[in-house]
Amino acid sequence: MTSTTAAATAPVTQPAGSTAGRLARSVRRKWTEHGLVFIAPFFLVYAMFLIWPLISGLGMSLTSENITGSGGEFVGLDNYAEAVRDPEVWSSLWNTVWFTVLSTVPLVVVGLVLALLAHQLRVVQWLWRLSWFAPFLLPSGVVCLLFLNMILPSDFGLADQLLASVGLTPEIGWLTDERYAMLSIVATTVWWTVGFNFLLYLAALQAIPAHLYEAAELDGAGAWKRLLHITLPMLRRTTGLVVVLQVLASLKIFDQVYIMTGGGPDESTRPILQYVYQQGFTGYRIGYASAVSYIFFALILTVSLVQPLLSRRRAEEAAK
Description:
Layout: H1 2-9, H2 16-33, H3 36-60, H4 78-85, H5 87-120, H6 125-133, H7 140-151, H8 158-165, H9 178-206, H10 210-218, H11 223-234, H12 236-251, H13 255-260, H14 272-282, H15 286-319
């Protein structure tokens, strides 16, 4: 009787496996409810190829790491101090900013003009869209070789032939003269990438309600007034997006310069990313190249954060 009562009053102990199983089921349920299980593969790849290299590169910029495997001693901020004093860094950074200024304006304006023209077409609009967007689908190497071998060569290049046809002096050193090398790279970039901005503007134009134009036309507003007071204000957000995307893309210029001029003549077209490449893979100074790249990364991050804030402030002031 006593043993039976003791057995009945003794606490029932559950196996440890059941607690672990409930915990695992609870974690699995939370992951499923919040969608974490679906984004886990992407986050794993993102962490492996973006987050980890970002952290690793930052640590490398604080050392004297060499591509040959030698060095690697901790030097603190010495690489950053050297980069700030390096005139080559500033000249390359200026070339990058100058290219961004020269390319952003025509890419925005030309994309808008082409979209306005295409929006007015009622026949073969698909052909117009395709003809301007097709170059954007080409690899950068193909575009650069096309301009190198067909558009820009002296004597037989298309650019010199067009100049000769209107009575101007041909045989201009498009890629060998400091006055024209950067402009040639800008022209190549505009022809190559304007199709993307063109499609963004065309999609925004097609989203503008037609009744706004009809009401303005009934009030006697001409085409120019409709453009200034309806079309352009309605495209303000799209223009802000295009400008931000274009500035960020132009700051990362590398392919066109590396293939077409190699940074010349006399380093007049060398962008900051090519200088990072030269320091890291030609000069074997991986630590110093990492420091320069992080200074440039800070510049890009600043631009990407400041531009939307300025656009938002202008929109709020206009709304008032």
